[in-house]
Amino acid sequence: MSRRYDSRTTIFSPEGRLYQVEYAMEAIGHAGTCLGILANDGVLLAAERRNIHKLLDEVFFSEKIYKLNEYVVENSNT
């Protein structure tokens, strides 16, 4: 029965649950740690690189920190 209510973030189930929000919270629980530190002379970005799937090839494991240009770095959980 929950399939009717889990495709949109704005539709509550009869129990008053937002399934998409619950799925997002579950995904956050499985994500690695990302840390950003602002210093006087720069910024330090660090990300945990962990492989929770034994069959996942390390070569194709996605990075979490991307250099966009000389001045901008993007940090994400994938």
UniProtKB/TrEMBL annotation:
GO CC annotation terms, alphabetical: cytoplasm; nucleus; proteasome core complex, alpha-subunit complex
Gene3D superfamilies per UniProt: Glutamine Phosphoribosylpyrophosphate, subunit 1, domain 1
Record-linked InterPro entries: Ntn_hydrolases_N, Proteasome_alpha, Proteasome_asu_N, Proteasome_sua/b
Subcellular location: Cytoplasm; Nucleus
Superkingdom to which the source organism belongs: Eukaryota
GO biological process per UniProt: ubiquitin-dependent protein catabolic process
Signal peptide segment: none
Principal location class: cytoplasm
UniProt domain Proteasome alpha-type subunits: residue ranges: 5-27
Statement: the UniProt record of this protein carries the keyword Protease: no
Keyword line: Cytoplasm, Nucleus, Proteasome
Quaternary organization: The 26S proteasome consists of a 20S proteasome core and two 19S regulatory subunits.
Protein family (similarity comment): Belongs to the peptidase T1A family.
UniProt protein name: Proteasome subunit alpha type
Organism: Astyanax mexicanus (Blind cave fish)
